[in-house]
Amino acid sequence: MDDELLIKYLLRETRQDEDRKVELWLAASESHRKQFSNLELIWNTSKKLATASTINEDEAWERFKAKTVSIPQTKPVKLWARYGWMKIAAALVLVCGAWMMFNLMGNKNKTLTAYQQTLNQSLPDGSSVILNKNSVLSYSFDADGGDRNVKLERGEVFFHVAPDKQRPFIIETDGLNIEVVGTSFNVKHTESLTEVIVETGIVKVSKGEQVVELHKGEKVTAREGKLTLLKNTDLLYNYYRSNEFVADNTPLWRLVEVLNEAYQAEIRIENPALRNVTLTTRFQNESLDRILQIVGETINCEVIRRGNSYILK
Prior knowledge:
It comes from Arcticibacter pallidicorallinus. This protein has helices spanning 3-10, 16-28, 30-51, 57-67, 79-83, 85-106, 239-242, 252-263, 288-299; strands at 110-114, 119-122, 128-131, 135-141, 148-160, 169-173, 176-180, 184-189, 194-200, 203-207, 210-214, 218-223, 226-231, 244-251, 266-269, 278-284, 303-306, 309-312.
């Protein structure tokens, strides 16, 4: 696999056909997935390293120009035009990689990545996690009995935390902290929203000075820096664990939202009057076409397929 394409994929700058090419390559071999995980770990850590840099780039550039003013002018050749900026990025990552990997391994950092299927993984403390596809999680557990630290980079994870009152289990995601002792709960993190749903036990969620304590059947959403505590009535969130879609008086827009995520589909509700029509049903091991057929028959709406997209009207 071309290194340039992998880095474009990391940066989310690939086209749809390139996404498919990378995903097929990842699905073909465990060694491919391990290679990509290592590259992803190095890349993410390099961004943190760059943030911590104390070099003043402007001053360095002025010093460079001062030393080179006497050099005769020649026609500039852009480095990225000659070699490709992706190759430069890849080279920088690989040059820094050895040092960073050594540092990370010394801290016992591990990264889990789910690509086009869910990932079920046990952790060293006896806890377990289930990653929804397209999710990335890293963790570091101190060998001397300190805190159990986890970072959710992106995506969705269900946690079943082994009880240990002496070692809090702490999850961090973009400034949001989730602390538990022993419980089970779901965390979903996107660019615009973080959501925590508790199934058992107690979970403490904090952001800045805001602190919310959640119990069974409750959820908290974090959007634009604000925490909101709600009762959870949605059963669709755990579809990736149960392999079934359970709608219990669920509005159509919510079912469509989950189906789009689960099947990587493009379903649109064209008729606004249909958005809040509720359904109570259950789908298990059904194709998307079959699910939409049943939905259409149930709420008396037309389902139109156009290529890979669907329209409900």
